[in-house]
Amino acid sequence: MTAKTVASVEHAPPAHWVGDGFHVRPLFAGKAFTPAVSPFLMLDYAAPVNFPPRPNPPGVGPHPHRGFETVTIVYAGEIEHRDSAGHEGKIGTGDVQWMTAAAGVVHDEFHSREQSAKGGLVSMVQLWVNLPAKDKMSKPRYQTLLAADIPTVALANNAGSLRVIAGAFGDAKGPAMTFTPLSVWDVRLNAGAKTGLPMPVGHRSMMPVLDGEVSVGGRKFKAGDVVFFSDEGTAITVEATGDAKLLILSGEPINEPIAHYGPFVMNTQAELRQAVEDFRAGRMGDLAA
Questions:
Q1: Bridging pattern class, strands 6-11 and 225-229
Q2: How would you class 39 by CB atoms within 10 Å of its CB: exposed for 0-12, middle for 13-18, buried for 19 or more?
Q3: CA proximity to 131, closest of 179, 176, 183
Q4: Do residues 250 and 182 make contact, with C-beta atoms less than 8 angstroms apart?
Q5: H helix intervals, the chain
Q6: How far apart are the first and last CA of the chain?
Q7: Please, which residues bridge with residue 100 across strands?
Q8: What's 268's DSSP letter?
């Protein structure tokens, strides 16, 4: 295997609130919604926050999406979701919600009623995944990927563990159905561990560091950094200074124009205007109170 080299690094800006339930850092920073992260679009990380008990669950009220998918990985706490396509669900620690907005949905996301009543830590990431033009107006769908259904691979030499949410790692295949070839791996590395991870040639590959500190090729990276790798090469080698939590993201780039406005991601400005018009006219559905 030939090593991928570090092409660039993004340092996440300070955290901000999304609604009143998610205190997030936009990890892709200036590369969000650019070809540099394709087929992904943006990545928000909500580091653990201890919420006091409250009767009304915090979160984000009804809002629309069109043209892409949202992937929510819960690290702590419990999140409830519902959308105008009739999907609803609850995901807890270790679970993943993979929502394909595609032609358009209106949805909301809140701490579960049980989580809100007792309070406690909430932490998660939300990754936006682009759809190719031919799939942007497909039917919305909702995948609940429970922790028990996500394969966990023990890394060699007691280096740590890797959960395969999408794509494959060796013989382990992730449960997520995707429209284009991509991988989403949830990785834990033990202090002092060193591991090699295979990555396809030609795929955009990146490593968000969520917690701890790691080094690649002698360069150190800390929580809030996203390391972008060269398209050439077939593997990366990562060493953890202390216990570390990472995501490994890679995918075949979608070489199409990206037109982005708020919660809509299409290919042209005309398609964005149509998305806004469809939402305002109620053609993406509605959520009952």
A1: antiparallel
A2: buried
A3: 179
A4: yes
A5: 113-118, 269-280
A6: 55
A7: 69, 141
A8: S
Q: What is the secondary structure of 105-158 as a DSSP string?
A: EEEEEEE-HHHHHH-EEEEEEEEEEE--GGGTTSPPEEEEE-GGGS-EEEPGGG
Token pair, residue 191, equals 């202090």
**Beta carbons of 212 and 223 less than 8 angstroms apart:** yes
- From first to last of the 289 residues of the chain, give the pLDDT tens digit: 788 999 999 999 999 999 999 999 999 999 999 999 999 999 999 999 999 999 999 999 999 999 999 999 999 999 999 999 999 999 999 999 999 999 999 999 999 999 999 999 999 999 999 999 999 999 999 999 999 999 999 999 999 999 999 999 999 999 999 999 999 999 999 999 999 999 888 899 999 999 999 999 999 999 999 999 998 899 999 999 999 999 999 999 999 999 999 999 999 999 999 999 999 999 999 987 5
- Give the closest residue to 39 by CA, choosing from 249, 275, 260, 270: 249
Query: CA 174, CA 165: separation in Å to the nearest integer?
Result: 5
In the block, residue with structure tokens 């070839």:
181
Q: Is this structure's pTM higher than 0.85?
A: yes
**CA separation for the pair 184, 150 (Å, rounded):** 11
- Cα–Cα distance, 249 to 211 (Å, whole number): 16
What distance in Å separates the CA atoms of residue 286 and residue 72, rounded to the nearest whole number? 22
Q: Which two tokens stand for residue 28?
A: 């892709």
Placement of tokens 């979160």 in the chain: 59
